Amino acid sequence: MRTSVSARWLRTAAEVPESAVDGRHFSTTVGWSRGWEGVRTERVVDHRHLLLEGGPVAELVPYYLVSRSPLWDAYESDAGIGPIWSGPVVYSASLYGEYGGAGGSTPEYIATCVDLGREQTARWAAEALIFGNLTSAEVDAWSAIRPGGTAVLVDRAYAAPIGGADSPLPAMRGRVRRELVRQWRRAKDGGLRLRVLAGAEMLPALDEFTDLAMAAAEKHGINIYGKDIFENLAGAPGAMLLVAEHDGRMAAAFLCFLHRRRFSMWTGGINYLHLRELKTYAFLMYESMTYAAAHGAEIVDPGRGNFVYKERHGFLGTDLWALVYPTTPRPALREALRRMSEGIHGYITRSLRRDELAAL
């Protein structure tokens, strides 16, 4: 049965109450969408939001006009290809948000998202409209309703169920579990302590966290962060900074979101000078999962990247795709996107083939 869809453009997500729409993921909530409007590390030069109603749930679909995305640049680097874009593109939503799919709850919503989104992309004179961080099933659903896009593999995210406060760790091999617990105990004996800063409480700590997050990103290739990102997301639902402190200083921290019983460790920063000595990564992983279980989470999501470590610790991977609709047909662009997708697949495959345990 077809539904009658009502679609309305909004200048800012601030026009919509948080409770009025269905944000399935922390990165598709009103608070996240509103926060990303103010980000400048990813060069957001304009934005609109499409409020969809008439289906089982209302949804808010963001569209950001972006002149440069450091995260897209990092994916190009991982794929081993040169720059694809020569001008601005439109993201719905930002690739930084780990999970996308806003507007995907009904076929009518999907058709409206693509049709009106492409019209807005043309008005902005952007090169393409990119629906970011879709699962394979979502790519199939969107492509069936609105063909013409090119699917590009961009990353892999991880998650696993946990069994509550009495069983906070995901299913992992006994040896791996014992080693994680051993490193956590060693970290505690070495003086590491957990501090949780929720929402605005994290703001005074963001200078220090930004330095660590930028250093971690640069260690793995290209810095993709700036303090503006973290400041703008501090007000998103369930935002918190889990800090591993040593002698009163931040040794490492994860920026996390608890939303719909899913605890997401979105990104982190680590002082690499003391990483192996203090076992800060193992400490934060264990403490994060324990915190998640104690606060009602049923799923723990350690985010993207570091594929070997996460798979060895019992997390299951989900490939994430960008579905790209060019403003005008360009065979050369389609070929470049195909090569990028193949390059990312090769990058992930090579990472998983490395015979090493990230002994963090």
TrEMBL record:
InterPro entries: Acyl_CoA_acyltransferase, BioF2-like_GNAT_dom. Gene3D superfamilies: 3.40.630.30. Residues 175-311 form the BioF2-like acetyltransferase domain. The keyword Transmembrane does not apply. One of its GO terms (molecular function) is transferase activity. It comes from the Bacteria. Keywords: Transferase. This is Acetyltransferase (GNAT) family protein.
